[in-house]
Amino acid sequence: MDVRGGDRIVKVILWHAGAVDAISVSYERDGRIEQTEHWGKPDGRQRSEICLEPDEYLTGMKGHVGEFGGCFLVGALTLVSNRRSFGPYGTRKGPPFELPAAGGRIVGFHGRSGGLIDALGIYVETDN
């Protein structure tokens, strides 16, 4: 997965249960909303939609990673905006991680999935 969006992220869909199973992102690009295909397997028992307000943007993500059932996975994920936090999605505990946008905003995601999400990173845009 390697997606850099348009003007802004408007929605994130997560499928999850014990871990983060899949993710899809919707962007506003030239006044139109475009949704990516999902990454991972959307087999999770729960599907959660994060809808951002027009003046809201993502400023970071945090969670837990670890080996679960012989696979390295993102076990829990929280997304943070300039106004609120969403999550955690997934219930697995392991070593924590935190990726702040360091004074900017998240404009895209990159990652990997062999089935479930096993790596997830961010692209950041700053005002500089």
Walk me through this protein's architecture.
By secondary structure, the chain is mainly β. The protein has one domain (2-125): Jacalin-like lectin domain (Vitelline Membrane Outer Layer Protein I, subunit A, Aligned Prism), CATH 2.100.10. The protein is 0% helix and 66% strand. The chain is built from no helices and 12 strands. The protein has strands at residues 2-4, 8-16, 20-29, 32-35, 39-40, 46-51, 58-68, 71-81, 85-89, 96-100, 105-113, 117-125. The strands form 3 sheets. Strands 2, 3, 4, 5 and 6 form a 5-stranded antiparallel β-sheet that branches. It has a 4-stranded antiparallel β-sheet with strand order 9-8-7-10, with no helix packed on it. Strand 3 (20-29) and strand 4 form a beta hairpin. The radius of gyration is 14 Å and the shape is globular.
Short structural summary:
This protein is mainly beta. It has no helices and 12 strands. It has a single domain, classed as Vitelline Membrane Outer Layer Protein I, subunit A.
Number of strands: 12
> With helices defined by DSSP (H or I, 4 residues minimum), what is the helix count?
0
CATH class designation: Mainly Beta
- Written as H for each helix and E for each strand, in order along the chain, the element string is EEEEEEEEEEEE
Shape: globular
Cα-based radius of gyration, to the nearest Å: 14 Å
CATH architecture: Aligned Prism
**Biggest sheet layout:** 5 strands, antiparallel
CATH topology: Vitelline Membrane Outer Layer Protein I, subunit A
The percent range for strand residues is over 45%
Poorly predicted spans: none
For the record, the count of structural domains works out to: 1
Terminal residue distance: 27 Å
Assign a percent range to the helix content: under 10%
GO molecular function: carbohydrate binding
InterPro entries: Jacalin-like_lectin_dom, Jacalin-like_lectin_dom_plant, Jacalin-like_lectin_dom_sf
Domain Jacalin-type lectin: 1-126
Protein name: Jacalin-type lectin domain-containing protein
